[in-house]
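Query structure, 208 tokens:
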């Protein structure tokens, strides 16, 4: 049986990732691809429970190190229960956020040491690295305005301030440059159809 493909969506708040995840899954399924749609933190029963702990409450509820450990604990369960079984069965996995979000949010945003995050990635993610990562990019002010306008401010992270979100954007773009073999930056400005066309061009060009 052919091993499945693993696609991750990354980016800051209000970039439209979740909408585009749904559109990509629909388009792949229309082509006969067996797809598992999932998200982080979450994606398995245990990981969803950790999500509720990690994402809710006061912005300063957790230290950067504690927050990183929570995210990787959720990721470990997600990998064991959802991602790896799907890939082993030959299904494609499309995930709304993955390990690059830890590098950006807990690392660049929160100040957790990069080597600490990478050591956890080696131990927990190990060989299950994405085949393709789509990094949605748009000006921070635009993304936050979108999030406010759509009532999307549901977690601790949206309340951490403009400079926090600017650090996220910078780090995501650095990740794309450092990992050009698996990352494609998607211009997230424009309407849904325009962005969806950019996503499909990246997926078709890299994986199909």
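Result returned for the query:
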């Amino acid at each position: 049986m052919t091993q499945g493909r693993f696609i991750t969506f990354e980016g800051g708040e209000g970039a439209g990732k979740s909408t585009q995840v749904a559109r990509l899954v629909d388009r792949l399924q229309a082509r006969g691809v067996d797809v598992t749609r999932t998200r982080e933190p979450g994606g398995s029963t245990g990981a969803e429970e950790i999500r509720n702990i990690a994402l809710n409450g006061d912005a300063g509820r957790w230290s950067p190190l504690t927050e990183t450990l929570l995210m990787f604990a959720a990721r470990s369960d997600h990998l064991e229960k959802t991602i790896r079984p799907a890939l082993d069965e030959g299904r494609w996995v499309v995930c709304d956020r993955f390990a690059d979000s830890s590098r950006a949010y807990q690392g660049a945003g929160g100040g957790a040491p990069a080597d600490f995050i990478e050591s956890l990635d080696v131990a927990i993610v190990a060989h299950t690295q994405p085949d393709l990562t789509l990094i949605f990019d748009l000006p921070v002010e635009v993304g936050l305005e979108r999030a406010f306008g759509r009532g999307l401010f549901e977690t601790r992270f949206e309340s951490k301030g403009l400079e926090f979100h600017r650090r996220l954007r910078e780090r995501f773009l650095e990740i794309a440059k450092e990992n050009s073999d698996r990352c494609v930056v998607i211009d997230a400005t424009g309407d849904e159809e325009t962005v969806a066309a950019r996503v499909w061009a990246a997926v078709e060009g890299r994986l199909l």
